[in-house]
Amino acid sequence: MASLSTSKDDSTLDAEGESMPKGDKVEAFPRISTTETPELDYISTSESDYPQISLSKRGGSGRTMSKAKAKRARKEHQRSTSGQQASSSSLRPAQDVMNRIRHDPELKVSEYVVGYKDRHVGIMEKAVENWSVEGVEEEEFIPLHRIEYFRRTTDDHIVWHREQRIDEIFRSGVSGEI
Known about the structure:
- By secondary structure, the chain is an alpha+beta fold.
- It is built from two helices and eight strands, in the order βββααβββββ.
- The radius of gyration is 30 Å and the shape is flat.
């Protein structure tokens, strides 16, 4: 039985709103009940969002599909609405690309620039060899999460782009599926 104290006269009311004498012990645990619901194979959003997928009861007569087929339908819907391919491979982080450009003997560090977001100006570029990876106390330190792309200066080719999910250094992201 739950109780409620009122500030008016310090009387105590039980769960039904009846007055209780002061000093009586009161249980402070709410009553909880559950209702049984039919089991569902899966739940999805409306058919306008994901055609061919519906909510169905087990053994029901509604349209059903396997979880794998539903997942494929959702991915196909995402691809068609986003205008770009969804990648099963994740994009390598900017730090990995930076390290590869700096330390791979086949790549010349002087041929690459970093495009990054400046909080006040917008997109800026800086040579990879001048990029500071030291502590945050330095005035020219720029956090890695602001890097938008890496560009090769010899042919003005973007070799890594965060938003477009291009990675021609490690072949991850969308570039890995081509």
